[in-house]
Design goal:
The protein is built from 12 helices and 9 strands. It has 288 residues and is α/β, with parallel strands linked by helices. The relative contact order is 0.10. The radius of gyration is 21 Å and the shape is elongated. The structure holds glutamine. The site of glutamine has 10 residues, from loops.
Amino acid sequence: MLLREALREARGRLAQAGAAEADTDAWLLLSWCLDMSLADYALHSAQELNPADEKRYFAAVGRRAERIPLQYITGEQEFMGLPMKVTPDVLIPRQDTETAVQECLRRLGGEERVLDLCTGSGCILISLLHACPGLSGVGADISGAALQVARENARRNSVSAQFVEGDLFEPVEGQFDLIVSNPPYIPTGELGGLEAEVRDHEPVLALDGSSDGLLFYRRITAEAPRYLKRGGFLVYEIGWDQGEAVKDILEQAGFGEVTIVRDLAGLPRVAVARYGAQPQQQRRDGDV
Ligand code: GLN
């Protein structure tokens, strides 16, 4: 079979399986299997694919046709320009989440201490540490299997981070200048309507935000003041329709300067709030 015939065949199989980006994924899998650039392909598309490569390629295409996400097949996803290992134990890093990282970076740059709750693959914390060499950071997650991936990603990107296992703040000690989290935020009733790749293959533990999707914002916001330095920031990734609800949760807990930031698609995606920024908080702590 010629390379270009293999590619055509794979596109057809993926389209038939209902994969949204069939053409792109057929190419990305070929490129991954053969370690081949687009320029190489242009030169060699009329050459025979050797039988071993053909077998490997169609095995990968077959898995993708089962709607396994591309990144769980290749084991990789780029995030903030950095290579991240992914396995089915972690949510695949999304471009939306880069907006949360950017908002953190706008508020960091010195020798701050950062906490990433529900760190998963570690992508948020690791990209922050990579961008700001003075920072130190802790990543927490309830999943030990996710933390193994996070540790590997820290090694891969030559950053040093501490990872701790437990339920939200339970394994966390000390105080931080910034707490960031992309917690599970999909309402339980909406999980069944997600695309097959997410619904059937990504960890439900990283997605299910309880009946209204807001459980983790309530829990984290309630406990965060104990772990934040005065003037410290709380940064959340949120669902596109959760801006008002999360703003309310933050304000009712006494956080100030609440801002909702939009992602590249123009949708509300990040909530930022400051601890101790409201007059009410300052009075209570006798600080003014
Ligand atoms: N953005 C993810 C999705 O669309 C959800 C991430 C989360 O729940 N934290 O599936």
